[in-house]
Predict the 3D structure of the following.
Amino acid sequence: MEKGQKHTEKAKRKIREKALEQFKNGMPEKTKIKLRENAKTNSNFGMKGKKHTTEAKEKQRLSHIGKTSWNKGKVCPQISKGLIGREASKETRRNMSKSRKNGFKDGSIKLNDSNFKKNHKSIFKGKTYKEIYGKERAKEIIEKGRLKKVGKIKPNALKFHRSSEERKKRSDRMKEMHKSGKIILPIKDTKIEVKIQNFLKKLGIEFFTHQYMKISHGYQCDIFIPEQETEGVIIPKKTIIETDGCYWHGCPICNLNSHKNLERQKERDNLRTKELQEKGFRVIRLWEHEIRKMKMDNFQEILI
Ligand SMILES: [Zn+2]
């Protein structure tokens, strides 16, 4: 055959058939020896014992760009079955780890690479940003983290950004919903509330917690006791018990530190008491320090 010519498909098939016929019972010893001798003496025999030059490798790489790999989408059950359950040897794993590290350094592995993400923890373990990213990038990352902590960059700040107008609209809408009783926030019972609740239980008095009070400064009261007459206990008037925390509501006896909403809170407490009384409720406001010391007898005296 001349250089540059190719066998036709038909000719190829013929050659293959001939070879199969010839080596039906394995390769004859004669042929094997011949091939071995040939490999020893003939320096051009395949690539045996030789390596491609970097130039040749580059040439191959360029020639493959844009072409579909010969085995794309093909399945080789024999090989895949054989590989199932096999563990990479220590050396292989070490090499894989090395290539990952190098890949990160030269930028061929990117941060959003899912495989890289899976493994990045082990790569980063015990290393500083400087060691991983280099001096300049490390500086950037550290500065970004610092700003986040300081609060200059809020995570999700852009995501949930609302204009001041929108915020006001939303706030108004929420206020209305609270007022109308459509939204009732789950409130956790405080220790002092629980103590009072237990007193009431022992006395066999029916009560409700966190009832929404529909007054102009609507809110959820701590304890609401409806009018009732049970064995020995008479509650002649619907009653509200407020358990006021000494700090939050500004107890004058404990005289704790003030907070920025204290004046507003005091004002609201007074207004609510007044409004409830006008609506025919009996309002009992108990301070936290009182409740802490309170015994059943004290409570009974206050209630009845
Ligand atoms: Zn107090």
Notes: Residues 90-106 form the longest helix (17 residues). The radius of gyration is 42 Å. The beta strands are 208-209, 212-213, 219-220, 223-225, 228-230, 233-235, 239-244, 282-287.
